[in-house]
Amino acid sequence: MSVLRRAVALFRAARTALHIAYGLTLAMIYPRLSAHLRRRILQNWSAELLDILNVKVLLANDDPLHGLHGGLIVTNHISWLDVFVLNAIVPMRFVAKAEVRHWPFIGWLCARAQTLFLERGRARDAARLNVHLVQLLQQGECLAVFPEGTTTDGAQVAHFHSSLLQPAIDAGTQVHPTAIRYEDTDGNRSTAAAYINEYSFGASLWTLLHTPQLRVRLLATAPLAAGTFERRELTRRAREQIMAALPDTGSHNFHFALTSAQHADANLLPSTR
What we know:
By secondary structure, this protein is of the alpha/beta class. The protein is built from eight helices and nine strands.
């Protein structure tokens, strides 16, 4: 590793630490703010984090994620970074495994950002959460789930757990299957953001800090009217649409959705730099 590359990584690490500290400060008052203000803060903070890590989001000009309001986003899951990538485009609430709550700093930030935590293997907790999710969807909230229940390196899409899509059926809302693909600057699939196996959060972040530039390609496929499907069929359709989208990203007209946090509404929040 070159001295210059290590110096750049350390500089970015310092900026990341300051940004997380800034987020922890905002999180103290976040739940008491209006819904509109919370969404703006969440989007701006996520965009700034991507800017610090030099992660560029690619989104097609005609992608349904532009201006999306309400519904359930269903996506493949590669990294903890997925949450901030999606929030930088459309502020939303996520359903995450309960273990995330205990991640250093990020877990507390997620909790203050009203992430919904699921205790895996506890049927009563799942039933309680599903009732809450139905209510939120009926109120027009935008929610997101990772039906794989785990992360992969992005080379495949794992089995989807259909129970996570049941609230969309009960609420009669739309499901938005969305593909995520991390790439290097040449357009090749990258594993730099992959958070798999026994990889610790610290090790994952350190890898990202040493990655000169990373691109993440988002593609929301055709929405599905959840109320018209049986749960397993809805799950199968959502997974197949995501799988079909991943190999064919080159045929779409993409642009940089975020080249820096300046493309977000940065008037509300001061920069951490």
